[in-house]
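My current task is to audit a protein record that another person submitted. I have pasted the whole thing underneath without changing anything:
***
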Amino acid sequence: MEKIYMDNNATTAVKPEVLEAMLPYFCEQFGNPSSVHWAGRMVGGAIDKAREQVADLLNCSAAEVIFLSCGSEGDNYAIKGTADALKDKGKHIITTSVEHPAVLETCEALEKDGFEVTYLKVDHDGMLDLAELEAAITDQTILISVMWANNETGNIFPIEEIGQIAKKHKVRFHTDAVQAAGKIPVDVRKANVDMAVISGHKIGAPKGIGAMYLRRGTKISRFMHGGHQERNRRAGTHNVPGIVGLGLACELAQQHMEKDYAYVRNLRDKLEKGILSSIPEVKLNGHPNADLRLPNTLNVSFNYIEGESLLLFFDMKGVAASSGSACTSGSLEPSHVMGAMGVDIVLAHSSTRFSLSADNTEEEVDFILQELPPIVQRLREMSPLYHREEPTPLSCDECRMVHKACV
C-alpha cells in the first residue's frame, strides 16, 4: 500500500542533506563546545556557522539568535522572560484566541500570577481586527504576542502592520513563526519584531531543536539557569547535531523557498478545488483568499461526519492527515481555533487538515481526490444526521475502525 504523508504542519521528514551534515557530530566531532580544549574547539565553528544560517533566514544578526530545544520553549522564554523583566512597568499582555497552546497556556499561567491577558477575537475567516488590537493597548501593556501563521488554517497574519502598531505604542512584540519560517519570507527587521521563534522539525531538521530571535538590547529575564551557554541567555549543553541540522535546513529553505512555494501552492490549490467541486456541503476553514494562507495548508470540514473517523478511513488507505493541531490530537474537544472562528460544533469536529510539502506529488493529490468522496459518503450514510438513502451495512473492519470494537 502506498504511503502518502500530508501532515507536515505536525512534523516533517529530516532532509537527507541535513542528516548527512549532522552525522559527524554524533561520533567523530563529539566535543562539548563549552570546553576550551581541541575537542570543544572542533565543534564551536559548526555552531557559529549554524547561527549565521538561521540569521540569514530571519534577516537578523547571528548574535541575536538563541538556540533552544523547540518552539514551545521559545514561546515560554519570550513570554515569561518578558513578563518577569517588565513586570514593574505593567502586567498586561495581548495575544489572540487562535494561538498555539505553547502561547495560550503560558499566558494562562501568567494570569494565575496576577497578569492580565487580552485574547483578541478573530472573524469567521480566522483573521484579526487590527483596530481592536490597537484599542486593547493600555499604559500597562508590556507585550503583544501574535503568531506569524496559524498552524491549523494556514492563515497568515499581518505581522508588519502589527509590528508598526507595537512600535508606535512602544510595546514589545513576539511572534511564533514556527509554521511560517521556511515557507514564506520571515523578515524580523522589516516586521519590527522583537522576538521570533522557529522550530527545526517543521523545516526538515530533527525534532528537539529550535531557535529564537531576540532583538539586540531587548531586556529579558533568563528562562533556564545552570550554565553560561548562549551568552548567558539559555543554560544547557548545546545539542550540536541538532544545531547543525537546523542551520542547514534554514539555508536549504531559503534557497528553495520561491520554487517550493509555487510547487506546493499548485498542489494545495488542486486539492482544494477538487474537494470543493466533488463533495457537497464542505466548508473551507481559513481565509477564502488563498494568498492569505500558507501555500501548503488546507483545512476543510465535511458536514455530518466525524473528523477522527475520516482520518481512520484515510489511514486504511495509507494517507496521513490530521484534525487540528498535533499538540491537541489526544483531546476529544473540538479545535479551539475552529471555536474561535465560530465554526458550528458539528463542523468543527469534522475539520481535517492537509499540510503538504515539496515531497508530495500530483499523483498523490489525484489519489486523495479519488478516494475521499466515497469515504465521505460512506461516513455520512452512518450518521444519524444524514438521511439521504438507506445506509450500507458496515463490514467488521469498518465497524472496528469507527466504533473501536465490533458491535
